[in-house]
Amino acid sequence: MDRAPEDRRPPEDPPHAGRSRARPRLAVLGVLLVVAAPTAGWPLIDGVLGDRERVAAGTVLELGPDDEVAVLRVTGRGWALSKSSSDPAMAYALSRDGVDLAARYVPLTGAADPAALWSGLRKVQSVADSGSRLGAGRRIAGARGAIGRSGSLTGGGRAGTATVWLPPGRGYAVEIVVLARPGASPGAVADATAMARGLTFPRGAS
């Protein structure tokens, strides 16, 4: 990232991460990456010391191009951003006290629904890591008309949740995976869960 996400403004105006207009061509590619990375492909982010960049509480991380923005707000202190596993406006990887959070923007070629995305997520996940398990998931609703699905996810000796969000227009999706090692900080788990469930779409329906 070209800018450190440390807060350079007053507390009421948290810093925004850098942005990029690059997009994958296929939604399934985004699904594959968000599943394969946390459950199979990535090392534990906490173990890559030279790759970590501290992120202040309240920092706003934007996912998506200028006209399709989802906002992930960092909850709690002590989170670190993995620079090598993050791509501004497309994907962010955060870690804290044994907990990893990965959020990814996924462009879609047509309208979709959370159940269909969840089914696709399960199919690709089984290929990416046959030892991981994605639960049935349940429908969730967010602010401004956002809808999604969230359920349990286990893999690589870690346990947590996967969450898929769709904005009111349903032209893209955001997938968030939270995985915790045994003995991880309960506070970090709670804050990561709050981030995953608190994703917002500023341009959603009123």
Sheet having the most strands: 9 strands, antiparallel
What is the CATH C-level name of the domain at 27-46 and 90-197?
A: Alpha Beta
Average pLDDT, all residues: 78
The appropriate CATH architecture of the domain at 27-46 and 90-197 is 3-Layer(aba) Sandwich
Query: Cα distance, first to last residue?
Result: 33 Å
Number of helices: 3
How many strand elements?
Answer: 11
Which stretches are poorly predicted, pLDDT < 50 over at least 5 residues?
Answer: 1-48
Shape: globular
Rg of Cα set? 16 Å
Residue share in helix: 10-25%
Secondary-structure class: alpha+beta
Describe this structure as you would to a colleague.
The chain has 206 residues and is of the alpha+beta class. The chain has a domain at 27-46 and 90-197: Protein Transport Mog1p, Chain A. Helix content is 20%, strand content 30%. It is built from 3 helices and 11 strands, in the order αββββββαβββββα. Strands 1, 4, 5, 6, 7, 8, 9, 10 and 11 form a 9-stranded antiparallel beta sheet that branches. β2 and β3 form a beta hairpin.
